[in-house]
Design goal:
The protein is an alpha/beta fold. It is built from nine helices and 13 strands. The chain has one domain: Ribokinase (UDP-N-acetylmuramoyl-L-alanine:D-glutamate ligase, 3-Layer(aba) Sandwich). Helix 5 links the parallel strand 9 and strand 10. The longest helix is centred in the C-terminal third of the chain and has 16 residues. The chain is globular, with a radius of gyration of 17 Å.
């Protein structure tokens, strides 16, 4: 059986000042991983409504050559209102009780889980118990050697300490940014530790293979047992940062699956995410040199 790299969770439309663009962290992850591993080997899993926006979603995914499992449910297809500040940094108004809150764990999804090579999931899609249960069942059904990447993605009030802890226990790679690390440190009861000691503590306590920390313009780190990789953030002219973190994760995981070292994978991820920052929207095609 073919083994898949999966983005699991929200598929939605980012409604940006210049118009709407297909987004959602799991779809972005699958798209960017597919640019390296081949789009036929990646899948976005979520749910759509029975509305016009769902049909537009299917067309956009086909246009991006992205495979999908998107069962239809009686809820509206998800949208996010995105506003950008002067530096291109987005803020999000995420509509609630939408299709991706209600992803069913059906037989097609179970079969992909059983043949999963890597899966990226976040906290946002776990705000509703239906999708949270599906994500947990999916993770439980994956093979022992599957990479399970928890891209924490704290948004608005859509997370709890319990969901974060359970997700870290279920993953083997944690991806987190500096602001999220600060919040998690407060939640977990060690706010006074510096960022490196927080990372080492989480890595060891939860027996993780890797912890990826992104710090915006201040660079990024990959902690693995016994060593750490650091890469500076390239200076580029930013169009917007929507999807940049997902492109980092997708290209990093693709490189690891391709047998690259942590340092090589980290370098590639930084280059890719810097390029995505120079483009509008979350799913630009990468140039040949990347």
């Amino acid at each position: 059986m073919k083994r898949f790299v999966v983005g699991l969770g929200e598929v939605l439309w980012d409604v940006l000042p210049e118009g709407k663009k297909l987004g959602g962290a799991p779809a972005n992850f699958a798209y960017h991983a597919g640019q390296f591993l081949g789009s036929e080997n990646t899948v976005a899993i979520s749910a759509l409504g029975k509305d016009e926006l769902a049909e537009e979603t299917i067309e956009a995914l086909k246009e991006h050559e992205l495979n999908y499992l998107l069962p239809r449910v009686p809820y509206p297809t998800g949208t996010v209102q995105v506003t950008l500040d002067a530096q291109g940094i987005p803020t999000y108004e995420i509509k609630e009780n939408v299709a991706w809150d209600n992803i069913p764990f059906d037989e097609d999804i179970r079969q992909v889980a059983a043949n999963c090579r890597a899966v990226c999931f976040g906290s946002l899609a776990q705000r509703n118990s239906v999708s949270r249960t599906t994500i947990q069942k999916f993770l439980d059904a994956t093979p022992a050697d599957c990479l399970k990447i928890f891209d924490i993605n704290l948004r608005q009030h859509f997370y709890t300490k319990e969901i974060i802890q359970d997700s870290i226990r279920r993953c083997n790679i944690l991806k987190i940014n500096d602001e999220e690390l600060e919040l998690v440190g407060q939640m977990f009861g060690y706010p006074s530790l510096d960022f490196e000691n927080k990372c080492w503590l989480i890595l060891g306590k939860y027996n993780l293979e890797m912890l990826v920390l992104t710090c915006g313009t201040n660079g990024s780190y990959v902690f693995t047992p016994g060593q750490v990789s650091f890469q500076e953030t390239p200076k580029v002219k930013v169009a917007d940062t929507v999807g940049a973190g997902d492109s980092f994760t997708g290209s990093f995981v693709a490189s690891i699956l391709d047998g690259k070292s942590v340092v090589e994978a980290h370098k590639k991820a930084v280059e890719v995410s810097a390029y995505v920052c120079t483009q509008n929207g979350a799913m630009p095609a990468l140039p040949a040199n990347l």
